Branched-chain-amino-acid aminotransferase (Lachnellula subtilissima), 324 residues
Amino acid sequence: MKEKKKKKIDWSLDRGWQTPQILPYQRITLDPTVCVFHYGFECFEGMKAYKDARGRLRLFRPRINMERFKKSAARVALPSFDSEELLKLIAEFVQVEERFVLLKEEYSLYLRTVLMGTSGGLGVTAPTSALLYIVASPVGEYYGEGYSGISLEATNGSIATRAWPGGAGRHKVGGNYAPCVAPEKTAQSHGYQQCLWLFGDDDAITEAGTMNIFISLRVSKSERFELVTPPLDGVILPGITRDCILKLAQEKLEHLGWLVDERKIIMVELAAASDSGALLEIFGTGTAAIVSPVEKIKWGQKIIKCGPSENHKAADLASLMTAG
């Protein structure tokens, strides 16, 4: 098998973006004082390349990734770029690495696009040089064979907070992730795979460790159903898979009488729905995990079973959304 490659582009304040290069995968050498090390001038995107049934290469909604990437870069004072030009470079890179895009169910080529400040010095100022690079990794099933559902431990502000209004929670910057690892290690030591991040005195649900959250409910005292996901209020990452699920749900479920809502939902409401039998199922969405059912959530001393119940199988919602 040929040597793996990476794509890189340098930028400087005086010269702008320089000539892109596709190079063998290699280490990056940086000055010890570069601003990415000291002050976190870094952002990234995760996206995937697939092969369709005819063996053609496909990128999954890449323009949305590029726009989110630009917003993340702007939030941490990194240089902007032409989204369409960067997409052309990514497409060229995927063509070069096509042998790693397997025509096999559940398999894809994960693309990690990174932009980081590389200017040296100990002053806290906007970067005057930067590096944009892309690395690729073949990936298969996120949780492996035999996976049936994940378990979450609800984490509120008395323990740790993932993001807050006016912060950078809506952006994919490295500073959002490192502070979350210690609480997640604690959750894992309790037997749970990820944290469910809560916010505020009322324990409002935001998102899980690597996923946006969707909740399927039976509407009180009726035969109607509701699909709920927390709103994009600045605290939550605007997931590309989340957006797909919302659009599919609006197209496939609303004409069947479902309510499809982006609204605040707190843990008291979720626990009450579970106790009454109104909670049908919970699942998470993300580029890596795609759609992942949640089996249970620990909230304080309470264990919330997330379904599906015997009368409502997980496949029911999926089949409704893919029918027609």
